Amino acid sequence: MEPSTPSKHDASVEQRLNLRYFRERTYLPDEEMPYHGVSHPDRVWTKAKILMERCAADGISVDGDALRNAVELHDALSHIPPRALGCDSAERLASDLTFRFVMACGYSEATASKIRDIIMATNPDVRPTSTEEIIIRAADLWNVGANYAEFKEGSLALHREAEITKRSEIPFSSWIRGAFLYLERFMWPMLELTPEAKDSAGRSVFHTNAARNMVTLWRETFGDETEVVAEFFPQGEIRPKLHDPKSFYIAIHPDEESRKESLGRLDKAALSVNGAALAVPGSRGAFPLPDGLCSTVRCHDATLESLAEALRVTKEGGTIILDFPEDIDPSILEVAKAFLSFVSPASPDGARERALVITKKVLL
Fold first, then answer.
1. How far apart are CA 261 and CA 270, in angstroms?
2. Among the four residues 55, 61, 102, 302, which has the most C-beta atoms within 10 Å?
3. Residue 243 has pLDDT above 90, yes or no
4. Which backbone phi and psi does 304 adopt, to 5 degrees?
């Protein structure tokens, strides 16, 4: 029987007991899966409750009962290859299993389907749409956009989990490449519900912190002087350039669908040179990057707002490259005079347009 008055903030006591019982039989112990083990749903639920409280303060309704069901079992049987059980993904396996479980508990098909959809929102290729779907996605990725210590702790746990699964030692430098290529698949959508999702300049807090954390761990692994290259595409598809095997490439793109479609090309480009690539949302004058993060920033729109953001996110001595149209804003040239700068000539075959190249070093 479907609960007559489902809680909007938490699952019932009876349902929590049912979930706990079923969870303990569909997850491995933490010793065998240090990250996705049996305690993983507790960590995700703790973060989900924070997001629910923010929603409540902002007047956004949340179905806490459906969300709790989904959080508890969103990684159920994740230790089993999904195709061995006839599913195309781990999320599909967990969502179908949970659908059958909650139906057996007496929930209606409509409620069970809602819970299944919430779990599917943890799939990197799915765009979360409902409030509950956005919350579970954000809570599941919480450590990615949290403080660096929390991000690194989660990364080390995932590395240990990979070694246990493979039953062999895996060099961290090898593991991080594949791990980041997978993590990057989650970066294309925005996860906005409440004002806390953006900072005072309109930047995505999650994506800003994620970029900082990933670059910091990458540099710890491959060296502090590892190049970080950001490229801003105002419209159209992302066209990544191949980069150094150890460099970290960040493509910033305002259009969500184009950003998602470009992830495959970014993955292939990064994999071909063993580097890293990250596609994140951004708009003119709102790059979701920390101050001084990048060695090089390329902007494909010659605007004063983009130049200001490029100067903010480029480290001292770094390089900023702006496309140089014939009708460039004179204010941009005035700003450039404060730094070492020059206008590059177009290539003989016309393949490359002129560009304004600025070295971020204030002239005395």
1. 15
2. 102
3. no
4. -65, -35
